[in-house]
Write a structure and sequence with these properties.
single chain; alpha/beta; 8-stranded mixed β-sheet; 36% helix; 24% strand; binds N,N,N-trimethyl-histidine
């Protein structure tokens, strides 16, 4: 992890993986982002799920093995339990610790659902232990988290999900769609500065991880929609010439030089359906909001 971070910081175009945005404070700041008027994805996706929950459950069928990728506090999946009635719930997250308290609470509430929490970085491999039923696997990947991957990486992940399904498996996924640039720009550069704090907090996290001396006040949040690449880019830009030192190394940053901290790809409906098909999925049903801002897909094997 240290090696990965340092290599990113020393690269000609410095970058860090978006996973480093989520230390304890970063996760709280992301929760705050989800409440912002400018940040439409969370609210729009929740409204789609609320409006079509029973239609989705009918398309999926009861008794699934619900595998929740990046489950976090498990809240999104738990809202589907009454309509979906899964046989087994498998929350997956990088940190099992984070899952444990959420899963303990859910066990009390839904004693009839078998729960198996898994700590795994599913972005690199989909190695599910034998305790996970093979029958009727439904992978659940909401929140447009798929947007953090490049289209090539996303296609690879979808292919691995497809590979972990038997003939009765499927995927329920939320994807943010391409829309007018001003709406996208505002969603990632809000008036209150919460997204700026979320981005800048990365530097505090790096100070802890690398024993580095980033001064948050020397950096500026930069986020914009890159229309050619169909992605939001988040960067941290040096406000002045400076040198950052960490245990075993250092780097000079000139004023205006940037660290690329996140991409958030946006898809067209057609483009995403094509990617599902290329990954080997068959019949797809989709649900969207009236403005066509966000898409939820159920893809069968
Ligand atoms: C958690 C990756 C879906 O890309 O919209 C929000 C992260 N970054 N504001 C997104 C994020 C800045 C979010 N995802």
């Amino acid at each position: 992890m240290r090696a990965e971070l340092v290599a990113g910081l020393l690269a000609p175009q410095p970058s860090t993986s978006p996973k480093f945005l989520y230390d304890a404070l970063g996760s709280k700041l992301f929760e705050a982002i989800c409440e912002l008027p400018e940040y439409y994805p969370t609210r729009t996706e929740a409204a789609i799920f609320d409006a079509h929950l029973y239609d989705m459950a009918r398309a999926i069928g009861r008794g699934s093995t619900l595998i929740d990728l990046g489950a976090g506090n498990c809240a999104k999946a738990a809202r589907m339990f009454p309509s979906l009635q899964p046989l087994q719930y498998v929350p997956v997250d990088i940190s099992v610790e984070f899952l444990r308290s959420a899963v303990d609470g859910l066990r009390q509430q839904f004693p009839q659902i078998r729960m198996t929490g898994i700590g795994m970085d599913f972005s690199t491999e989909m190695a599910l232990p034998p305790a996970v039923r093979r029958e009727k696997r439904l992978f659940f990947y909401p929140g447009s988290s798929i947007g953090n991957f490049t289209p090539d990486e996303a296609a690879g992940l979808l292919g691995r999900i497809r590979g972990a399904c038997e003939s009765d498996g499927g995927l329920l996924i939320g994807v943010d769609l391409v829309k007018d640039k001003p709406i996208l720009d505002a969603a990632y550069d809000d008036g209150l500065g919460v997204t700026a704090a979320f981005n800048l907090n990365l530097l505090r996290h790096l100070n802890g991880l690398l024993d580095a001396d980033f001064d948050v006040r020397d950096w500026r949040h930069v986020a914009f929609y890159n229309e050619d690449a169909s992605r939001i880019e988040m960067h941290l830009e040096a406000r002045r010439d400076l040198t950052v030192r960490w245990a075993g190394g250092e780097r000079r940053f000139g004023q205006g030089e940037r660290i690329h901290t996140e991409n958030s790809y946006k898809y067209t409906r057609q483009g995403f359906l094509q990617m599902l098909e290329r990954a080997g999925f068959g019949a797809v049903r989709t649900w969207s909001d009236a403005q066509g801002w966000f898409l939820v897909c159920h893809a069968r094997v």
